[in-house]
Each structure stands twice: as structure tokens, then as C-alpha cells.
Amino acid sequence: MTSYKELGLVNTKEMFAKAVKGGYAIPAFNFNTMEQMQAIVQAAVKTNSPVIMQVSKGARNYANGTILRYMAQGAVEYAKELGCKNPQIVLHLDHGDSFELCKDCIDNGFSSVMIDGSHLPYEENIALTKKVVEYAHAHDVTVEAELGVLAGVEDEVSAEHSTYTKPEEVVDFSTRTGCDSLAISIGTSHGAYKFKPEQCTRNAAGKLVPPPLAFDVLEAIEKQLPGFPIVLHGSSSVPQDEVDTINSNGGKLPDAVGIPEEQLRKASKSAVCKINIDSDSRLAMTAAVRKYFNEHPDHFDPRQYLKPARENMQKMYEHKIIEVLGSNDKL
Ligand SMILES: [Zn+2]
Fold first, then answer.
1. For residue 208, how far is its CA from the centre of ligand 1 (angstroms)?
2. How many domains is the chain partitioned into structurally?
3. Is residue 331 part of a domain?
4. Of 94, 116, 155, 180, which is the active-site residue?
5. Which pLDDT belongs to residue 151?
6. Sheet holding 189-190, edge to edge
């Protein structure tokens, strides 16, 4: 049994309260490699931002849960080494799918967990979420729940169609489960292909323009739950310059499309206080590595190509923090 407090981590309670009041959102970046972790910490320290480092089931399978936990502890120490006196770093389980998985994470140093019962019938989602909340709160760990279904593919999580969160359910759900934050579905989507071309229009340059988020649903939810922390999943913007770099260096990502940053900026100013970004980090890393290989076919030291990959991710994280989420200078 390792408490997250021993690792120097914090839960989301205080940072969400401040974010809701301050009209900004906390970045939640997925990680499963050392380079991603370093880039996240460097960006958070440089911008003076709190940060949520999150781990999916797929990341635990890839990197091993114990290793990731010690990487999160290392992240706190690394932030201090970089000059941050009071790092606010959360280790969060993304898309927990069972009580047992959530319990295992809580028992092993996670400061926050998501229990995703969104695919279950309403009453079963409530029962499962409530069970996780009871265990988590006994250990001072915060819980994110989900109502409504996102489309797209992310690790083992996938759905063909989305179902918007029903505003008339949110009060009943949050009251009966006791969850600390709520992930909602208002048109964001998992992965680098968030929308099919037929769901979009095309601009003059032939690039896909995705449909707008359902801000009316978000507003209706806020009206039901004033001041309650809302979470957006699947919120990568799939930067077209990274996609172009990938495609012009041997990659093949036709019509990859994400959520425009101005929509996320608007959402950050509302009750949305956590925004999940995973695909953009994958794209930034892949673009840098592909470009490097193309330009240096004779190099084979991983440090040579992972360094520009790390730098490109850090630049992207800093951009999100300052230009999209507004969580800079909030420590
Ligand atoms: Zn998600």
C-alpha cells in the first residue's frame, strides 16, 4: 500500500476548485514513455502550471503500472530540481473500467481515478461509480465519472457513435454517486480521426472543418450543476502542421482531424476544468521522429531522434497550457 502523498502527488480537489473559479482548465496529458513525462514536467514548470499526468489501461499494459507510478514520483522530484518549489502534479487513471482496477491504482499511489461506466445502463453506472467513490474517498483520492458516450477509438476504449450527456440526469447522478468531477459528451471524440469526412465541411485549402461542439448542452449542464467540475475527453486538436510533417516524411494520415483550439479555449473558460490531450502528443512525437529519420538516414542512436521528439512535445504542451487552457501562472 503506497499513498500518493508519500510520492509528493496531489489529488484534483483544490486545483479543480481554483480552475472553476478562475475560468481556466487543467491540462490532462497521457504518458507512457520517459520522454513524454520529461516533456510534460518541463512544460508545466516553465509555464508555472498544475498538471494531470494520466495513465490509461493500455499505458499500464505497455509500460507496467509500477514503473509508471515511480515515473510520476520522479516527475515531482524532477519538477523540484527544475526550480518549481510547489509542484501540483496529479497521477490519474484514465478510463478505469472496473472497481478492482481503480482499487489497485488507489492502493498503489494514484491520487485520482476515473471510473468509466458510461457504456453501462444508467443505474449500473451509478452503482459502480458509487462503489469506487466510497473506496477512493476513504483514501482521499478524487474520482472522475462519465455520463454520455464519446465516439472514436482510444486504447481499448472505442465507440462507433456518440450520445450527448443528458443535462436532466447530471444532478441525480452526481448526488447519488458523490463523484468529484464529471466527464461529459458534447461532440469531442477519441483518436486522431475524430470525425468522418462526411461529418465535416472543407475549407478553401481542402482541409476538413469539423462540426462545432454542443455548447448548448454544456450550458444546460452548467445550469444544473453550477460550479461543478466538468471534464472533456478526446480534446486533441490534431495540428495540421504535424500531420503535414508526418505525411511529407513517409507517413500516411489522410484526413486526420481534431477539435479546433478556439472551441477548447471557449470551453476552458466555462465549468470545464480538465481537458484530456493524448493524440496531439503522439502526433508531435511521430512528426519529429519521421522528419529526423528522413533527414538523417545514417543515425541510429535513439537519443538522437528522441531528443527532437521530446522538444516538439514540450513545445506543444506549453502551447496548450498558455494559448488554449489558460492554466499558466496558477501555482
Ligand atoms: Zn477518454
1. 23
2. 1
3. no
4. 94
5. 78
6. 157-159, 151-154, 189-190
